[in-house]
């Protein structure tokens, strides 16, 4: 499909929702319509493409959604799309409407599906990184991360109040099955003593020694922030061991869970979603296809979808030094 021929774009959200997805949908729809294209919305990610749940959007379809969390297109993780039969059905449903391009707002799993689809069929795809986990290389930001981390910070600040009142040790679990960015950022921003994430090896002996030393120095507020995907286990497992090894500590667990995925997107998430949505359409118009649109050093950055699939962000060693020194 040559760039000049693109006339009908379909947009969908896939995988875990993230705050700001609606702002991205709005940007894709309004930019496409501005350039005289038809824009179609697909419900429930790739499932809607297979089940033919696709509708034509207009500028009003996306009115009053920039400030809303969730996604008006709903989302799903489709197993069927990973089977050739599923993708064939999906293609047929696009084809019968003359839809000739696709914008996918989601995480690396969703890009994996897009990559396969665009290899098999003549449908250029553009990915926008929509995930609270920020676990996609090729962008300094992902849509939803800023909101999620601010939700975590607000909650942990509240936990700190009650921890302080009772001289308790709190193990707070935040989201991040494969990535520790929410834990790292929220932990640093709330002054956590220790931050446990899947990207680094968790040394439980070091954690116990650290907490024991702080107890000896009568450091009263103790917050440990753990990403749910930490290889040692989540907050319950960490707390179980601490209770065994430090029975004198009054230990509590708080698992923040899906509260981190909802809520009104922050200004930053609305901005990056709008910018990325706008550039997704620009990409399709200029023939820059099968890429993920990112922002690096405040400039647009385009990563081939197959690289966005495989790469994971590396966490700089610097962060750990900062945690150690500032929480001493
Ligand atoms: O969207 C990413 C994520 O929030 C992960 O951090 C988390 O592990 C996962 O999704 C939870 O998925 P589900 O909502 O399907 O339980």
Automatic annotation (TrEMBL):
Annotated control of activity: Allosterically activated by ADP and other diphosphonucleosides, and allosterically inhibited by phosphoenolpyruvate.
Pathway per the UniProt entry: Carbohydrate degradation; glycolysis; D-glyceraldehyde 3-phosphate and glycerone phosphate from D-glucose: step 3/4
Top-level class of the enzyme under EC nomenclature: transferase
Positions of the catalytic residues: 133
Documented EC number(s): 2.7.1.11
Cellular compartment(s): Cytoplasm
Annotated positions binding ATP: 16, 77-78, 107-110
Residues annotated for substrate binding in this entry: 131-133, 168, 175-177, 228, 252, 258-261
SUPFAM superfamilies, per database record: Phosphofructokinase (SSF53784)
Record-annotated Phosphofructokinase domain positions: 8-284
Annotated ADP binding sites: 26-30, 160, 191-193, 217, 219-221
Binding site for Mg(2+): 108
Required cofactor(s): Mg(2+)
Gene3D superfamilies in the cross-refs: 3.40.50.450, Phosphofructokinase domain
Keywords: Allosteric enzyme, ATP-binding, Cytoplasm, Glycolysis, Kinase, Magnesium, Metal-binding, Nucleotide-binding, Transferase
HAMAP family xref list: Phosphofructokinase_I_B1 (MF_00339)
Function of the protein: Catalyzes the phosphorylation of D-fructose 6-phosphate to fructose 1,6-bisphosphate by ATP, the first committing step of glycolysis.
Protein name: ATP-dependent 6-phosphofructokinase
Gene of this entry: pfkA
């Amino acid at each position: 499909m040559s760039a000049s021929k693109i006339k009908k774009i379909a947009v969908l959200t896939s995988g875990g929702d993230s705050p700001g997805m609606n702002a991205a949908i709005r940007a894709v729809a309004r930019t496409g319509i501005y350039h005289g294209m038809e824009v179609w919305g697909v419900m429930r990610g790739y499932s809607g493409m297979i089940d033919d749940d696709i509708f034509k959007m207009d500028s009003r379809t996306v009115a009053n959604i920039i400030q809303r969390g969730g996604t008006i297109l709903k989302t799903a993780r489709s197993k069927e799309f990973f089977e050739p039969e599923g993708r064939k059905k999906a293609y047929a449903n696009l084809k019968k409407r003359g839809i000739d391009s696709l914008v996918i707002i989601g995480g690396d799993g969703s890009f994996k599906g897009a990559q396969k689809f665009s290899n098999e069929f003549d449908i250029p795809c553009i990915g926008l990184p929509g995930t609270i986990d920020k676990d996609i290389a090729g962008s300094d930001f992902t849509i939803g991360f800023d909101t999620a981390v601010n939700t975590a910070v607000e909650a942990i600040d509240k936990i700190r109040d009650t921890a302080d009142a009772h001289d308790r040790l709190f193990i707070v679990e935040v989201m991040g099955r494969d990535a520790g960015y929410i834990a790292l950022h929220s932990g640093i921003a709330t002054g956590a003593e220790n931050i446990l994430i899947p990207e680094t090896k968790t040394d439980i002996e070091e954690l116990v020694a650290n907490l024991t030393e702080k107890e000896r120095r009568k450091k009263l507020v103790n917050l440990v922030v753990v990403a749910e995907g930490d290889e040692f286990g989540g907050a319950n497992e960490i707390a179980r061991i601490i209770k065994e090894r430090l029975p004198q500590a009054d230990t509590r667990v708080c698992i923040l869970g899906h509260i981190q995925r909802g809520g009104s997107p922050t200004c930053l998430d609305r901005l990056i979603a709008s910018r990325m949505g706008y550039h997704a359409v620009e990409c399709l118009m200029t023939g820059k296809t099968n890429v993920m649109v990112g922002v690096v050093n405040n400039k647009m950055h385009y990563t081939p979808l197959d690289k966005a699939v495989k790469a994971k962000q590396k966490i700089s060693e610097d962060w750990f030094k900062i945690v150690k020194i500032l929480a001493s």
